[in-house]
From TrEMBL:
Protein's UniProt keywords contain Glycosyltransferase: yes
Keywords: Endoplasmic reticulum, Glycoprotein, Glycosyltransferase, Signal, Transferase
Keyword Signal attributed: yes
Catalytic activity entry: L-threonyl-[protein] + UDP-N-acetyl-alpha-D-glucosamine = 3-O-(N-acetyl-beta-D-glucosaminyl)-L-threonyl-[protein] + UDP + H(+); L-seryl-[protein] + UDP-N-acetyl-alpha-D-glucosamine = 3-O-(N-acetyl-beta-D-glucosaminyl)-L-seryl-[protein] + UDP + H(+)
Protein name: EGF domain-specific O-linked N-acetylglucosamine transferase
Source organism: Drosophila willistoni
Glycosyltransferase 61 catalytic domain location: 296-401
One Pfam assignment: Glyco_transf_61
Length: 499
């Protein structure tokens, strides 16, 4: 029997309720609750990991307040996982335990298989590096010994417009091997370790790479049919021949203890995988994170909060108790565009307020783990529109993200803040922000993202004060009633449930 996975306590209880036999590993004096994630069929609403918040009136999208909450839940929370599980359909059925198998959700967004053969011999002859390619495999280069429903598989190929929308570009090449894969002489290499094959969005842009990490995390739940679902003894195979390099690569340590593979590690071979998962993808139509269509008036996805806690826990990011003063982190850009021309003036004004502890950081100069240590212990995160604001995923639940200026892209980080459940503030007074020029897009034309800005100091301070009020008003912030007194004992403010 596998050992208990390394999970936060209120995640672990839900894992144990999914796999009750694992409770035998608990000490005899430990009791458990009936908590569930929310994707389980018998999970009651009050036992879910979290319920979305929809404080405003429902709009014409839906006919009732409950429909508004439910819509958000199935768009962006564990309800989305429930839908994926309901859609799982066999594409290739085994007759015997040693046969191959393949099952997928609708449009081949998520697939998993057993005893499958991938023929990578042709890759050694490819002159160009492979990334975002839809022709990695040719017909007959993905094989299994099972009863293939060709009509059903072909019917799911609608979302193959790009490599990152579905697994259609790969699975359209699936064919049947007349003999069991593992008993044949076809395998040059057998991978016994459960393997996740990833088609990733980007490596150096935090927003886009975390589309990959988040969907990998969500896929753990879709694949959660065995107690080893959260184990790290798994192999990650990235579907490209470029060497994997990323400032955020430490995040993979939350998922796997093994070195990352790319197609360069398997090219020239026929590779047989005993267990392989093709996770949810970063640019799916109506997908999670990048293309999530959010209903108006709702926020606080439990799935996004669970992801945040999972990553912070697995990477062992220290949590410090909040202080009576608001901790402000200002992200200073070292890029050509979107610099704040009067940054020093703004910071000097902030530092004059005795209610604030202010630090200016340039995250590109720090390791990602060190970045997370700062973010997790920040109450207000301030920065210009840019991928660094993706750090809002790892702010405390009571925190506020202040997107200093959205550069005419109003929904990107506002929606991400809604998903994570942190408050969001941005600049509203267009006459009080002063661009250096009209901006010059590399492909021609004016563009707000390609210039630098100066900001009105009083309006900046007003917005920071607004953000601070939201932080103090949050029920989990220990000084939420404007109190500046230090209590007799600072408690660790983290989600806690009795096991």
């Amino acid at each position: 029997m596998p050992s208990l996975p390394n999970l936060p306590s209120d995640h672990l209880i839900r894992y144990l309720n999914t796999f009750p036999k694992m409770k035998q590993k608990l000490p005899s004096n430990v009791t458990t609750t009936q908590a569930c994630w929310g994707h389980e069929r018998d999970c009651k609403a009050e036992a879910r990991f979290q319920t979305p918040q929809c404080p405003g009136d429902h709009t014409g999208w839906v006919q009732s307040k409950q429909a508004q909450v439910d819509t958000f839940y199935y768009q962006a929370d564990f309800g989305y996982i429930q839908q994926q599980l309901a859609e799982l359909t066999p594409q290739c059925l085994p007759k015997y335990l040693t046969d191959s198998s393949l099952e997928c959700t609708r449009y081949l967004r998520f697939c998993r298989g057993r005893n499958l053969l991938f023929d990578f011999r042709d890759l050694v002859d490819r002159e160009e590096r492979i990334r975002y390619h839809m022709d990695v495999l040719k017909p007959g280069q993905l094989l299994g010994h099972c009863e293939l429903n060709r009509t059903r598989l072909t019917g799911e190929l609608e979302h193959t417009g790009s490599a990152l929308q579905s697994w259609g570009p790969e699975l359209r090449n699936f064919d049947v091997l007349p003999e069991p894969v593992m008993e044949s002489n076809h395998c040059d290499m057998v991978v016994d370790t459960p393997t996740f094959i990833l088609k990733i969005d980007a490596t150096y842009n935090m927003y886009h790479h975390f589309c990959d990490f988040f969907n990998l995390y969500a896929s753990l739940f879709v694949n959660q049919s065995h107690p080893a679902a959260f184990n790290t003894d798994v192999q990650i195979l990235i579907w490209e021949t470029y060497p994997y390099d990323s400032p955020f690569r430490d995040t993979f340590r939350a998922f796997s203890q093994r070195p990352i593979w790319t197609l360069s590690d398997v090219e020239g071979k026929k590779v047989c995988f005993r267990n392989v998962v093709m996770p949810l993808l970063p640019r799916m139509i109506f997908g999670l994170f990048y293309n999530t269509p959010l209903i108006q008036g709702c926020s606080n996805s439990g799935l996004f909060r669970a992801f945040s806690e999972f990553i912070l826990h697995r990477l062992q990011i220290l949590f410090e108790p909040p202080k009576p003063k608001i901790r402000i982190t200002y992200l200073s850009r070292r890029t050509k565009y979107r610099q704040v021309l009067n940054e020093q003036e703004l910071l000097e004004q902030l530092e004059q307020n005795d209610d604030y502890i202010v630090q200016r950081v340039s995250y590109e100069r720090l390791s990602f783990v060190d970045q997370l240590k700062i973010t997790r212990n920040t109450d207000i995160l301030i920065g210009m529109h840019g991928a660094g604001l993706t750090h809002l995923l790892f702010l405390p639940n009571w925190a506020c993200i202040f997107e200093l200026y959205n550069c005419e892209d109003p929904n990107c980080y506002k929606d991400l803040a809604r998903l994570r459940g942190v408050h969001y503030v941005t600049w509203q007074q267009r006459d009080l922000v002063y661009p250096q020029d009209e901006g010059h897009h590399p492909e021609g034309g004016a563009h707000a993202k390609f210039t630098n800005y100066r900001f009105d100091v009083p309006e900046f301070m007003r917005l920071v004060d607004e953000a601070a009020k939201e932080v103090r008003a949050h029920s989990e912030f220990p000084y939420h009633q404007q109190s500046k007194k230090i209590g007799p004992e600072l408690q660790k403010i983290e989600p806690h449930h009795e096991l």
